[in-house]
Amino acid sequence: MKHPAAMRWGRKDTPPQLEYRPYGLALNRSPSQGGEPKKTDIMRDHYYVTTPIYYVNDRPHIGHAYTSVACDALARYMRLDGRRVKFLTGTDEHGQKIEKTAKAQHITPQELVDSVSVSFREMTGLLNLSNDDFIRTTEERHKRSVQAVWKRLEASGDIYLGKYAGWYAVRDEAFYAESELIDGKAPSGAEVEWVEEPSYFFRLSAWRERLLKFYEENPGFVMPASRFNEVKRFVEGGLQDLSVSRTSFSWGVPVPGDEAHVMYVWFDALVNYLTATGYPDANEGEFWPADLHMVGKDILRFHAVYWPAFLLSAGIAPPKRVFAHGWWTIEGEKMSKSLGNAIAPGELVEQYGVDQTRYFLLREVPFGNDGNFAREAMVRRINSELANNIGNLAQRTLSMIAKHCEGSVPVYHEPAFTPEDRALLERVLVTSEKTAAEMREAMESCRFQEALSGIVEAASKANEYIDAMAPWKLKKENPERMESVLYVLAESLRGIAIMLQPFIPDSAGRLLDLLAVPQDKRMFAHLHADGPEKPADIPHALKPGTPLPAPVGIFPRIAEEKAA
Ligand code: MSP
Question: Among the four 28, 86, 216, 362, which has the fewest Cβ within 10 Å?
Fold first, then answer.
């Protein structure tokens, strides 16, 4: 195959017709390689994202999977966007709820936490999570860290000994004021019990103004904005001192200097985010403050009120953001132990595939809203978007290339890209600089659904292009043009696959393998060809003549009856 003359990289005699602004890779460039580092380069360097740590009184279900998959998509996205990422997940293993559950099962709390923690660790494998650490609150590193934070609060004068008398819901591991109860139950519906015991308190009441000031100075601290308003209203309403230790059971981290008390499980749990950065040995470590704590709406108060107050009192920076996502119902019903309708992530993965499960969870509902899980909707999504749209595009393109281009990347022939070619490539690649900027913004504010619908739409455009160009007809009439069309399609697929990686890493990776895209050319910066060193009016990174593996289907259709 002859070398395509049309593939010129920034030749002086062909002024770029589209503005080319490199991004992304520039972040990794040292000053010696390409100019002064921009301030944003430094700001964008690290990214630390966390899931809540899961209680081990329950087996993993779709609610846990949801939070974890969302964090994983973010972590992968940020890595592909050139950032140094730390992604943390783990298990919350202390407290009365765990102690009670163990007792009911006639095992020790340690036996319970050891066995159930494993199932959460297994979930990370099942869902193909790319977490860098898995923390357990029963680990020694964590005990030292919580005790160190406790001592700092004590030193700042925010801890005092008193007596707690009030309501406690073991299921929520939360204290409630009489005025908060609804029909004698917690607002969550959990049973409450009367507790009266000696307790250490955190002087939360003294933090009202400082918290409100912190919120004002950090307008993006809680997302979505409506949730932030709830948090502010709660704090404005006045805060009571918080009981932070218990004496009526022992499954927890002892209070330093007063072993009759174990720390309140939420105090213990929240500190996990800090423990994992190396605290206290490495102070707060290079990844602190966390960029994002992802949580469900039910546990926002702990993260957006108590946690920043503890940290500010300890003289440690609060996290940059807390995002509260919505809840899933199952086929219209609240998920609950009594209904026995919880869905295990393993069940979905086995039935539909890991990427299909990940895709559905992030695609179906705007992140932040509640959603309903229905198998029928899941099958419809998988079939219409993954199989029929993206899968079909890949299948048609790759099988024609295998058949008519000797199984290697086709040549793009002179004259240069036609308006139709340009329109598609601009949508998928060059404008994906715009698309990429939009995607970055969408990802930074956790609008996963929007990011995904942009990619699906790009695939629809490519399918429209293939129909309009009808390369199968060109085979006889104009074989060179057929090759050019297939080249444009292969490039579009490359762009789509790069963008899909954070969401469906395995399938996207296999698609890139089928296009023979090297492992080190799969970053978001590579959307624009080989990177900013080789600016061209239209990026084209695939090298004509590169042999491709035999095409295989990547996005199977799910038979409808399976849905039943
Ligand atoms: N251990 C605490 C978190 C401590 S973080 C310092 C906890 N654990 S949990 O296992 O009960 O819940 C973990 C997460 O799962 C929460 O963010 C919760 O919102 C989420 N979900 C539980 N059920 C859910 C749904 N039905 N739908 C979506 N998410 C749900 O809370």
Answer: 216
CATH 3.40.50.620 residue window(s) in the chain: 44-325
Spatial distance between the Cα atoms of 410 and 393, rounded to a whole number of angstroms: 16
- The segment(s) of the chain belonging to CATH 1.10.730.10 are 375-563
What distance in angstroms lies between residue 63's CA and the mean position of ligand 1's atoms? 7
Backbone angles phi, psi at 295, to 5 degrees: -145, 160
Which among 535, 543, 536 has a CA at the least distance from the CA of 417? 536
Token representation of residue 397: 């393109």
Question: Which of 25-29, 77-81, 436-440 has the highest average model confidence (pLDDT)?
Answer: 77-81
**Ligand 1 probe mutation, 58, 67, 268, 328, most atoms within 8 A of CB:** 67
Mean pLDDT of 47-51: 98
Q: Which residues pair with 87 in a beta bridge?
A: 49
Which protein residue's CA is at the shortest distance from atom 13 of ligand 1?
A: 54
State which amino acid sits at residue 549: P
CA of 53 to the centre of ligand 1 (A): 8
Per-residue pLDDT tens for 192-228? 999 999 999 999 999 999 999 999 999 999 999 999 9
Any idea which fold 375-563 has? Isoleucyl-tRNA Synthetase; Domain 1 (1.10.730)
Task: Identify the residue whose C-alpha is closest to ligand 1 atom 21.
Answer: 63
Helix (H, G, I), strand (E, B) or coil at 418: coil
> Tens digits of per-residue pLDDT, 553-564?
999 999 875 444
Domain 44-325 homologous superfamily, CATH: HUPs (3.40.50.620)
Residues with CB under 6 A from ligand 1: 52-55, 63-64, 66-67, 92, 269-270, 272, 295-296, 298-299, 327-328, 335
- Residue from 138, 311, 327, 331 to probe ligand 1 pocket by mutation (most atoms less than 8 Å from CB): 327
With tokens 């060809």, the residue in question is 529
Backbone angles phi, psi at 325, to 5 degrees: -90, 170
Q: Which atom of ligand 1 is nearest to the CA of 297?
A: 19
User: What is the identity of the amino acid at 365?
Assistant: V
Using only C-alpha atoms, what is the Rg of the chain? 27
**C-alpha–C-alpha distance, residues 280 and 480, integer Å:** 65
Residue with CA nearest ligand 1 atom 6 = 270
User: What is the pTM (predicted TM-score) of this model?
Assistant: 0.90
239-248, 474-483, 526-535: least confident range: 526-535
Q: Are 300 and 324 contacting, i.e. CB atoms less than 8 angstroms apart?
A: yes
Q: pLDDT-based confidence at 9, cuts 50/70/90? A: very low
Strands 245-246 and 258-263, by their bridges, are antiparallel
pLDDT digits (tens, 9 = 90+) for 297-348: 999 999 999 999 999 999 999 999 999 999 999 999 998 877 889 999 999 9
